[in-house]
Amino acid sequence: MLSVIRKLSWFFRQEWRRYTVAVVLLVISGVLEIIPPMLVGRSIDTIHIGGMDWNVIVLTLTQLLTITAAAYIINFAWHYKLFGGAFVVERLMRSRLMRHFLRMRPSFYERNRTGDLMALATNDLQAVSQTAGFGILTFMDSTLWMMTLLVTMTVFVSWKLTLAAILPLPAMAILVSVYGKWIHKRFMAAQDAFGSMNDGVLETISGIRVIRAYVQERAAESRFAAVTKDVLDKNIAVVKIDALFEPTMKILTGASYLIGLGYGAYLVYHNELTIGGLVAFNVYLGMLIWPMFAIGELINIMQRGNASLDRVSGTLDWKPDVEEPEEEKQARVPDRPGAIEFRDVTFRYPSSSVDNLRDVSLVLQPGQTLGIAGRTGSGKTTLMKQLLREYPPAQGTVAISGAPIETIDMDLLKSWYGYVPQEQFLFSRTVRANILFGTRRGESTEEELQNAIAASALAGDMAFLPKGLETTVGERGVSLSGGQKQRVSIARALIADPDILMLDDALSAVDARTEAEIVNNIRTTRAGKTTLIATHRLSAIQEADWIVVLDDGAIAEQGTHEQLMERGGWYKEQYERQQVDAKRSEGGDA
């Protein structure tokens, strides 16, 4: 219990007014609930001695109605405050978790499954919310409310009877503690299994076309059945322990009732307790049942909340691989980027055992176009990612305007870039919304939008889309072809008119004619701006100011198109082969 309170102490300090009001109202409500049994007991004793008259009845009824009305209002108020706080902490932690996800770099997502992260943002945060709401209620009821009842029973009824009736409580405390440890361990396992199931569902939905193409529907069903059975088994294991709480509480509270009735009758018989006192005591004993149950609920909820908090905190404690430069250490750079320079850059991915870039050195002046070529896996994408700062700094220096990029403010750095990755991602919105996503504030003039569409050679496709720009592309752009998705992504990058445009094999799904049109448009519209193009199709970069050919992470060749053709290396061989293939393709079309 204390562990959970300590982990959520930041929230209770932040919302101390809310919880102070809730606790005070809970105490007042508890005091009000104690009074009616006392009035009933006194009324029974009054009847027993023959002193009941109409005035006493009216007074007693008035008191009971007044207490009921006050208790109703107070109960509404503490319920609103307490359970409102539960929703507040869930919202705050979900927002904090989302901000954390947005700060994390690719290595974080490489090491954490999407399903687990989804489970954190749903089931685990719901468990934390219950801790801050129902958990606090059960804590108050199993401690302060129970103590209030016990003091009332001891002082106003009989200390002997109270002491006898609470004899089962120590056994209850021991059993609940044991159950709590079991719940914590099994609930952690159940949440992990739920994360695995989420991940499996996400992969199946995302890869449904591949699954159907390879006739793997039955295999996917079998795998999912196995995963869901594992989730069921682990949750059943939790429920088995959960199911022990209620029978245990009922047996022990039943024992308290038995003692109360038996020993209470003995005290009445020996004139140590009145009949009204015995009735009031049994009412109080009935009221004590919930606090006894609350002990079990408290341990159950707190252990679940503790397990979920551990999972969420473990994720929130994950430090980003790439930190923002401290303000006093930030380099002073112009608003517009200057030359891009790689000096002896050697880089290795965190999960790799070999260097993915080796001693790369090159300089790209403002306004120039750099072509990056090479075999699959040669390091083209890795070279571009050095500018994106997605991973910790490499050996050597990557600089813009003479300043190492790790010293440049991250927001300023990213404001210079327009990036189209190999794997395009489109949101399940309209074509218009996906393109406008590239603008800084999601807004742009119609002229700018049309210019971006024209530059990306997307204008001709508008007539074939059901609603043109207002066509919803579906999840991940499922309703568009590969070439259309690439061109929407290119338009999204172009509409922001970035100082540095990076196209990472972004023309692979379009035909040679469309590729030539896009490259020419980019060259025309981006005159004076820096562009980096990584591609397998060398015709896309033959007009570049400088071309580098990567092989196994190192620069194998570099120069202009003419220089590389004269050198007679891999570039020339590949270019000539592609030209022959293009002519054959044109001949076949003819």
Automatic annotation (TrEMBL):
User: Which ranges does the record mark as transmembrane?
Assistant: 21-44, 64-89, 134-157, 163-180, 275-295
What does the record say about its membrane topology? Answer: Multi-pass membrane protein
Q: Cell cycle as a keyword?
A: no
Q: Where is the ABC transmembrane type-1 domain?
A: 21-304
Give the molecular function GO annotations: ATP binding
InterPro entries from the xrefs?
Answer: AAA+_ATPase, ABC1_TM_dom, ABC1_TM_sf, ABC_transporter-like_ATP-bd, ABC_transporter-like_CS, P-loop_NTPase, Type_1_exporter
Q: Which UniProt keywords apply?
A: ATP-binding, Membrane, Nucleotide-binding, Transmembrane, Transmembrane helix
Name assigned to this protein = ABC transporter ATP-binding protein
Native species: Paenibacillus hodogayensis
- State the taxonomy lineage: Bacteria, Bacillati, Bacillota, Bacilli, Bacillales
